[in-house]
Amino acid sequence: MDIILAIILGLLFGFILQKVGAANPQKIIGMLRLHDFHLAKVILFAIGISNLVLFILLATGIIDSGHISVKASYVGVIVGGAIFGLGWAVSGFCPGTGLVAAGAGRKDALSFIAGGLLGAFAYMLMYASLKPSFLFNELGGKITLATTGNDKFAVLLPGIPAIVVAGLIAIIFMAIAWKLPDNEKT
Amino acid sequence: MKSFIFQKQWSWRASGIALGLAFLLAVALVKPIGVSTQFVILDGMAWDLVYNDLIVKDSSAKKGYSSSNVYLNKSGGKYAKNAATPINYSFIFVIAMIVGGFIADRLQSDKESKEAMVVPAIWQSKFGQSPGKRHMATFVGGVLVLIGARLAGGCTSGHMMSGMMQTSLSGYLFTIGTFAVAVPVAIYMYKGVE
Known about the structure:
The complex is a heterodimer.
Chain A: H1 2-20, H2 25-32, H3 38-59, E1 73-74, H4 75-91, H5 95-103, H6 108-130, E2 138-141, E3 143-144, E4 154-155, H7 162-179
Parallel strand pairs in A: 3-4
Antiparallel strand pairs in A: 1-2
Chain B: H1 2-6, H2 12-29, H3 37-50, E1 55-57, E2 65-67, H4 70-84, H5 89-107, H6 121-127, H7 131-152, H8 156-165, H9 169-189
Helix pairs in contact in B: 3-4, 8-9
């Protein structure tokens, strides 16, 4: 059953990434150099709406809070993000969109994937020596802003109802998405 | 509906709703979407093929497998297990994503130029048409992206989208780190391009 879901959800996700323009380095670079806000609008709108609906479905019990999976916060998240950002700007691909772009026939995505496999391999070799460093100093651990109902994860704003936190974030994200200039060309 | 499937790119509103729904559906049915771990899993499979003792069955490990590589061995051998058993949810998901991109491209009525499928137009206008130069940049970019994603423990899918959707602090930290570097670098790299 899991494998069937993996196929259906993976196909859907890959199809959508291609259709929204995320697998096009032209659009990624356009967003990063603040020239073409199409993808920024898409991402902000997607996070806003999924954030709101997720917490509504969690509150009503339609989504099992056991499905929530929160990643830890530590120094390496920011440092890794920065290294990621450098590679993202240089290539115009991220791991998921690079794979989808390769499926869609982009040749430069193949060299990106080859580089990615080498980078991941290098990290596998480096991990043991990085582990004791400051990079893994905790910055809050597995924590969310809004209460998810899953006891495994700590909450930053436990006093405020989750739906209010998620709702406010959603409104802010969707408002920014709405306000950013729209240039649908290219 | 027909043009929705065949058009090159959706409007930002349709795109945002579709993308948001994909992330929601995944968490509702299985778990949040993540991609970059699977680069490690594929490396682990290849490495284990060459060097047979890399991953071994180990009943004392939480996940039933252990590895001499500390990274594959972490979290009770979670990565070791996934590399030893390729037919697992996360790996098949990522393979299906590639097929999803392929299908979307096949159905697309308005194709991009052949040149742009090797060297994007914006790259051409700054760095020329040489495919070699472009491949070099995407290769180096790929190395950096995956080192960064593994150090951070996730990428655009796992941290930025799935993470912020769940209001995870780590998603916000990752996004701040990413854009703080990506935006100035992209602006500088493409300075002077219209």
